[in-house]
Every structure is written in C-alpha cells, then in structure tokens.
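Reopening closed ticket. The problem is back. First fold of the pair:
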Amino acid sequence: MKKFFYLFVLLCVVLASGAAFAADDYWNDEIYANIEKTVKDNTPTFPNVDFIVTEGKYAGLVEDAEEEYFVADGDKAHKKMTQPVKDYTKAIQTAIDDASKAGGGRVVVPAKEGSTRENPTVYYTGSIEIKSNVNLYLAEGTELRFMRNISNKYYPMVLTSFEGNDTYNYAAPIRAFHAKNIALTGKGTLNPQADPCNWQAWKRGTFGFPNQAEVVDVLVKQWSDKAVPVEQRILTDGVTPAPAKIATMTIDWNDIEKVEYIDTPKDVKPLRSLLRPCTVEPYACENILLEGVRIINSPMWEVHPLRCRNVLVRGLEIDSHGSNNDGVNPESTHFVIIENCSFSTGDDCIAIKSGKNRDGYNRGKVGGESCGNIIIRNCVFADGHGGVTCGSECTGGISNVFAHDNHFDSMELQQVLRFKTNSYRGGLIENIYFKDNTVAKCSNALMYGETQYTLGSAQDKEGDLGPYTPQLKGVYMSNITAGKPDAPVMAKNAILWKAYERAPMTNIKVKDVTVYGVQNAVSLSNVKNFELHNVKISLVDKPAELETFNTEAIEIDGVKLSAGGKEYSLAEGIKLDMPEDFDKSKNVVVAGVITTKDAAFKDGKGTVKAYLDRGTLEAGNKAPVITPYDAELKDEGNGKYSFRVSVPLTDKPDYQYAYRPDTEKENMLPGNHILSIVATGLPYDQNTWNYNVKCK
C-alpha cells in the first residue's frame, strides 16, 4: 500500500514595519455599485389605493376570541390564563387578499386619534400572509399583538426552516410565500408577545414546559443528516391534522409566483412542534421593502428573508432580547441593503446565513444556495452577541458583504464583526469588507472569527469530525476607530481568530485601525496571510499609549523532504507518494530557506517548527494528533535563513486520520500524515502564529 504525505505551509507571525499593501484590496466599488443599483431598481412601488382593515366589509370580519397564555407559577411551573380579545386575523388577511387580486395597493392598519407607542391602538391577530403587490402599512401608534394561543389555527403549518434546516412548522406572525413586490411599512409595532412562559420557555424547557432539544435532535440528526425528504418533516401543534396538500421547495425565478403543491404523505405521523417561528419571514420572494416598523418580544429570529432576492430593510427598530432573538438574518438570499436601522437584541444583531449541515449543502442543488451581495450601512448596534455576523448556519457559503458607516456601542455587545462555522456546517465565507465604522464599547472582540464554532458543545462535541471543510478567506477591515483615549472600548481582545489546523483562515487584512483600551491586542490560531498595516492598539490599563502593529512577509522557499537517499520537492497542498519499501522506522528530513526583513528574526528570536498531523483511534480518540518538532536555523545573510528539521514517520497500525470530507477519504488510510511548517518572528506562542506568509 502506498503511503501519502501532505505539506501545508501554514503561517508566521511578525511584528515589524514597512510592509506595502494594495489599496484596492479593502473595497470593491464595482460589486458595491451593482448591489445598490439592483436593489434600487427592484424596490417595489404600489398603486395609490388603500384598503383599510377597520372599514367596509373588513370591519364585519372582526371576531370575538379568547386568548390563552401562560404565567409563571413559582420557579418551575406555569399556569394557563385567558382573556377576551377582538381577533382581526380575517379582517387583515381578507384586505390583503383583495388588494392583491385588484392588482395591488396599500393595506392600512390605522391608529385611533391620540394613540402613541406607549398607549397604542392594539389589534390582536394570528399569522398574516402578505401577497404580491401589497404594502401592509402599520400607522404610527398601532400595535399588531399576535395571539399567544400556540396552535395551527393562528399559526398554520407552512414550509419554512429552523436554524437553517428545512421543515414544515408554525407560520411566522408576518410571512410571505412566492410573492413579488411586497412591503411592510409604517411606524407601528409588531409584538408577538414572546416571554419566559410563552414561546421562549421551549428554548430550555423552563417553567415545566417541554424542551425544544428533542425536536431539534430529530430535525438535525434524523431528518437532515439522513436526507429525509422535506415533505416528510411535518411539525404541527399535536392536535390539528396536517393539511391535505403542502407546498414544495421548488423555486422558479422566471415565475416567482408559481407554487407547486403535492399531497401530504399519508404514512407520515406529524411530530408535535416545539420550534419557535421567526417574526417576519418572506420565503422565496422577490422585490421586498421592510421599512420603519418596530419589533419587540420575538419568539425567534426577527426578520428572516429566506431564499429571496432584492431586499431593502430600512429604518427598522429592533428591540427584542429573548433567546435566539437575532435582528435581521438574510438566509440563502441575494441583493440586500440594510440601512438606518437600530438593533438591541438577545443574539446576533445581523447574521448572514445559507443553511445548516446537510440541508444547507443539498438545498436547491448539491453544493447549497449561497447568500451574498449585501450592504449594511448607517446602522446603530447596541446589545447582541455579534454586530455584523456571518454564520453559523453557512453551509451554502457567504460572499460580498459590505458594512460601512455603522456605530457599535454596548458592553452587552460581545463581538463587532463576527464569523462562525465548523466542520459540520462548512461553507466558504469570502470577500467581507468592513470600513469607516466606529465602536464605543464591546465586551469580547472588535474582530472575531472561529471555524471551530461550538467546539466541545453538543453540536460539535467531538471536535473536527464533520463532513465539510470550513473556509474563511478575504476579510478586509479598514478605517476603524474603537474607543477614545479617555473612554476605552473595554473589550477583552482587539482581534481574535481561531481555526482548525487543517483549514486555516487566509487573506485577512487590517489597516488604519485605532483601538483604545483592550485587555489583549491580537490572538491568532491557524491563520494564513494575515496583515496589519498602521494598526494601533492600547491595553486597558494604558488606554492613551498606543502600540503600532505592522506585518513583514516571511517567504518559505525550496522546501524539500529527504528520505531513503532521495529528495522530494514540496509545495503547499502537494501529495507525495512514498516508495512502498520505504523504511518507516527512519526519520525524514525537511529543509528549506526563509526570506524576511523581520528584525526580530535576525535578533535570534525567530522560530521554525514542523508539525506532523496524524489521528489515532486509541482509547476511542478520533481527534487529530498534532506533534511539533523544532527546526535548526542558520543565518545565511541578506535576510535569508536556512532551516532543517528531522521528523519521525514511524507507522503504527492504529494510526489514521480523524474523519475528513468525502473528497479526502484517502486520508483515513493508516500511515497518512499532513506536514506543516510554521515560522514566527516572535518568541513562539501557539496562539500567536501565522502572520502574512508566502511560500514558493
């Protein structure tokens, strides 16, 4: 059997001065202008016709109803309460249907004279579906208060998704499906009334309610991971039978309003749903305007365009702090502008997504449906896990995101710019541009990325064992000010990046950034081609004393592996076939030349290490085994340093790789190895290698 060897030249860390950079790396005017033009050209307009939900025949459709809801009964129990309300579901929905059939118009939810946000005109309602060519307008001083009766009567079973996995579940309070030219506008409020005992209790099974984890486990591990057809993933209220026909996932962008229906499978027993809906969810829609409204008390994500095109989100006020209360989450959606909005949320403020795990890979076509061509500008971010976030459900990939002229200010905001994925989600995240933004406060990091998200948790409890390779490359941050000399930002880190050894992040560039008052400056693990140019950072105990960070490239040339009296040239990503009769009890020698102007290297502080990446099944351990070996360095003059390192390749029957993608199954053969070379101009620190390396 042949043995295979891989060389991945990883990276190096250098803090020096004088590196040049390409000015156009940090922005792409052509792509930005195309996004802006596409969204502007497709922003919907509507006939000047109003359908008022309190007038004419619609007034007669208002029904008396009894709202059921729950309150806490001690720390661990709940009790049911009821109250009489007026139900406007039929009145609003009929007005929308009439407007759409008439060719379009504005459906008005009016406010009584003297109504204010604090003392609004309240309309109780169930889920409402916006149809093509309709603008649902909420007058200032109105509040749509959605019924807390969690049943399919008020929230019918529809095709949707939950955290990137496709299923049939409760309809969102405001939804649209295969619609074109739609809007939700006005200064009114959407209030789904989620609280610790209504909707939100399912998150962790508090107050005696069941825990959603049992349904999530079925959705992800049984339905998605085993490729169960979506039409068999039926979630209902546990009482109401599934409808006779259900919509399919087919999208025809040449005829967006065409919807295909199939018979609901007779042999499928619906599962009782414990999964919370998003508040606003257009699914497979085109030309969307969401403007002006306020959203509070959301069950789940607040605004979720799913598989849509041409979306303008403008002037929304999102203030909802429940679990998973992300603000705006475009998923598998293209051409989006989010502008002039304010966010204070219980999760990520903006989170860009493209499906999760196997569903994300298979959605639409094998390889997934990406999400991208997004502009985020002139927004204000307060509380949240991340300000502008990519992931974690990003299996289909994310690209071309521009965020500029935004302001971030809250110690309850963990990360300003955040990236998250893992080997169960994979996905390629690339071409992310972040410039001309200001930060007053955040708690964890200004720039944060991890391709080992949820490592150690239930979702990824065994580490890097998923079937997909996470990739993050091409992130550009420029012209950022965080804090002031007398008002430090107070974050734990300025920049923090963490990746798997086998899949380093690449091409991360930061320039003209000033950060006052953080606990740690820069922490990196497995990051390739990372550049800092005119980056000034001060520590929290010395907020006025700035240290400037720049990078100096380290080039690794002429790397060769010597074994059995023969030399083999190595380059990044090469696969080397070794002779079958090679004596694996012998060491191999890896040698090459480093070129750098880094003064620290010349001062004898340079370090070169070779890493051998293997896996073992001993004691049930499936994680990779990474072993470092120190290289000998020799100063050859003129900024060149030769290195030599001896690496043992002793074979053992129980050695093999941890699970890798299907395309790399040969890596599971016993005796395989990945060899990595790491160089640093600083005293060696596992958490601070890898700045700006070039290999030849």
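Second fold of the pair, where the issue appears:
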Amino acid sequence: MKHLIHIIVLLLCSAISAGASVSFTVQAPRQVNEGSKFNVTFVLKNAEGSGFVAPDIPGATKLYGPALSTSYSQSWVNGKSSSSSSQEYTMIYKATKQGRLNVGAAVVDVNGRRMTTKPFTIEVLPPDKAANSQPRSLQEEQRQHERRGVQYDDPITQSADKAVTGNDIFVRIEMSKPRVYEQQAVVCTIKLYTKYQVSQFIPTLQPSFDGFLIEEIPMQPSLNNVETFNGQQYMVAVLKKCILYPQQSGKLTITSGNYDVNVVQYENYRTIFGTLSQPVEKKLVVKSNTATVNILPLPEPKPADFTGAVGHFTVATSINPTPLKTYQAATYSYVITGTGNLKYIKAPVVAFPKQMDVYDPKTNVKVNPASGDMSGSVQIDYPFIPQFAGEFTIPASNFTYFDPETGKYVSVPVPQQPLKVAKGEGAPSNHYRLQNMDIRHLHQGDLHLSKTHTFVIDDWRYWMAFVLPALLMAALMVYYRKQLRQRADVRLMRNKRASKVAQRRLKQARASMNKGDQTAFYADLLTAMWGYMSDKLSIPVSELDKENIQSELTAYGVDPELTQQAMALLDKCEFAQYAPELAHGDMAPVLDEAATLIGKLENVKRAKTQPS
C-alpha cells in the first residue's frame, strides 16, 4: 500500500511538472556553531527526480541522508484550481571546525536532464560548550536525550520506540488579526510544525473558508525554517497563505483540516564506529486547529456613493481619444489605485450627458497580493459614443471608500470632465434613441371617455356566461345517459344496425354479379336477406325460418303486400341457389328488388304492442 501511494504521488508530480515551472534549490542555515548539527535540504519543485548526488562539505561530517520526502498539494480558490509538488532531499551534517564551509552543487536527473543547485557558504561560529558536552556511554547519551526530549536536529532523540505526540508534529492555523471590518483583509497562514523529518504529506480535507472571498498567495511548502513555539524548536513549513475578505458581519470560523503524514524515526545502534541510526517511517493522521475572526459591520448610514471599497485609494480619470467626434467610439477611464479589496469594488455610477450613447463598463484589475493585502489598480472603462456636436460635461462626483484604520468613510473628489464634441459622419444610433425616448406621442381625437359607471353584475351577458355553460353541460349529460341506455339494449342495437349490415352484404353480392358468378351472387343475396330479417325482427339464428319471419313481419306492422314481396324474394333466392341450372335471367333486377325491399322495410314503424 505504501509503494502504491508513492507511485500515485510520483505520477501526480509528473503531471504537474508538465504545466508548472521546475526548479532545484537548496535550503540551509547561514550560520551554525562548531560541534552542532544542521540540516541541508535540496528541494526539487514540480518534477520527479532520480540519481540524486549530494555535495561533499569539507569541515563537516555527514551524519544522515539523503532522506527523501515527497509532498503534493491542490487547492480550489474562488473557482480556480491550483496544484504543486516537491521532492526534498534532506542531509544532516555536524560542523567540525570553525570558519567557512563551502557547499558545492547537488545534482539530480529530471527526465534525462541534469539539474544542479547553486554553491553557497555556511559560517561556523565558536562552539556552544553547554550544548556540546558529550556523554561517555550510550546509556548516558540516551538519558541526556530523554531529559532534552525530541530535538528536530538530533536523530538519536527521534528513536522509533517513542510515540509521536501532538506536541511533536501539528498543523496550526494563524490569523493576522482577531477582529476586522467587512471587506477588510485578514491574512490566514496554515503552518506545519514538526520535530521529525517528513517523508510524505498529503492533505485529505482542506480547511473551509465559508463567508470569505479568498486571494491565495502563491508559495511552495517546504521545511526550510526553524521556529520556537511554546519554548520548543520546530522545523516549520508554510502549507498555505491567503488573504481573506469577509463578506458578512459576525463570528466567522475557519474549519480544521486533515492530513496524512509519514514521519521518519530512527532505530539507534551503538558500534565501535559510533552511534548508527536506521530510519523507520511511521504514518500519522494530523488534524489542524480551528480559527475564528470577529467581523465588525460597516458603519451606518453608508454614503450614497459608497461602492464597497475598503482600504486606502486614490482616483484618476481620463478620456481617450481626444478630440471627440460624433458617432465615433470613445472611452472614459476611471482608475482606482491603492491597497485593499480592489478586485471586489463595484463600478461607480457615472452621470453621462443624455446626448451620449453609453454602454456597459469593462473592468481590468492589476493587483499583487502583498504580505497583508492586495495592492495595485483597477481600471473601469466606460465606452460611449457622442450623438450630437457641442460642449458637454461629465459632472464632478466623489469616490467614497471605508478606511478600516480610522473606522470612517473617506470621500475622494473626482473633478468634472469637459467634453468638446466636433461634427462627425453618421447618424444617431437606435440604442441612443431608445434610451432617451422618455416622452411618448400623445393620443389625439375622441378618446370615448365616460363619467358613468356600470357594474358588471348588472349586465345580462355576465349571468349568461354562467347559465349557458351549465345548460350545455346538462344537455351533454342527458345525451350521454341516453346513449348508454341504447347501447345496453341488444335488440335495439341489432335493429339499428340491420340496414347497415345488409348494405355491406349487398355490396358483396354486387361484386359476385360483376364477376358473373351466379351461384355466389344468390348465396350472398340470400345471406344478406336472412341476416337482415334476423337483425330487424330480433329473431335468433337458430329460430330463423320463413314461418317465423312472416309472423314477425305481420307483428311488426308490415303491410301484407310488402310481406308477400319479402317472402317471394326469399323463395326466388333459394330456388336459384339450390337449382342454379333452372335459374335464368338478369341478376341486376333481383339485386335492385332486394335493395328496394330493405329500404321499404326500414321506413315501416314498429306497431305498438296491444295490452293483453
């Protein structure tokens, strides 16, 4: 698992080196005491190195190294992502004589390219007798180190049998000020304090800055400083440094972060050659503290021309080009210079003459994050096009900002800007005409005004709007219920469909007649007549015969003569179907006779049933 993490970190370092600048530098103290131990760290940024060769230092003895540590960091600030990596090769030396130590160049290979550091010198001062008193045995040496505790520059005190406590390595969030105003800058610094060498450092949860706008100060974390905290000395690396601009009043808290850290401890052995140390890595999870800042609200009432600027500023204005001509573009530049929340200042409102076609302003910010705030300038360009020739004026105004040191608003006068516009070529733009068309054409003629008032509920049309839809809905419901009753009556539905079904069957008989198929014609015609009688008279197919048909026709109220015609037609069809060789004559009159008979029967109204 440890090798897999190393591979992932190295791959990330290779990806970063493709887009970031690669450097190889050295970090070391400029002065040491004779007999004391000191660290020399060679830092390779944003690249993966191999074949590291440390320089020899005449006048100093190498105690340990090189110890390789790899770190990778990534941050997301104000919607922008940034990442960096470093490889640190740490050497521990002991100064053996006074004078100057000449440290030569270290060498490392980066993707086939040889990189070296710059040579430098270290001044060795006279020895500190109290610090360099040597014990006589390993046991006495260990007892002395136990009394002294873990020392960042002494591997013997960093033995592997000791537990690494929160007093030996921790991450601390520091705020430059405990109390600020809204939009006033406060510097947040996140530092790593350690008494052990760090071989790997990976942030797993970054602190959150809710309620702040962030301007991060670019830097590369490295253990290159020594600081005293609570009376103890630590190697210190600045992990993150940023300028925060609070956006709301009250108590804002920066949450803690989590970090996976691998520290280097040593297994110490006493030999005839002295004390030897074997490095051992230990994985830890380090959690930072939280930090709070009290945010004071900006004083009320705020000036009308206050645009959110907090800090110290000056203002200058200019117009380009000059002289001005109608229908030609020009720019009114409003430049704010100073130190403060330059990026977050809103564009001031400029009162241009109505004869100008004015467009949305454009902002260009040039700032440098200094140690405690942003300094630089912001230029706000107001594009405009003169529409008429003549002499005009952009009136004088004030730029107001809040000074957090005095706790008061400061107004910087902005002088008026005269505009002398000469006649140019072109015509007024549509944008200008629409902007300045504040008076519309007046309506003329009879407006049909009346002093009388009529209530809507007194108008009959108002009530009809309710009555007519109600009546229509009632009629639809009656019709729908009638249809449901009719569809439930099977006999009635058969009676209604009798004529339509018969007509379809007569069409089939006509098709057989057109083919000259006399047998099929009479069969289709007979089927149509039998089917019609069954549907019209509601006679089941099993009971369908001539006697029943004749009696049902009479009961239905059909005239006896029409009944005889129907029976004669049925006889003719049966005779022609079962004795086709005896049938003769044209088939068309027979088909017409059947259609006529069905039409007459459809016009007959059912006789009312007499009560018994």
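Update: turned out to be a display glitch only; the data is intact. The longest helix spans residues 460-488. The chain is about 25% helix and 40% strand. Please close again.
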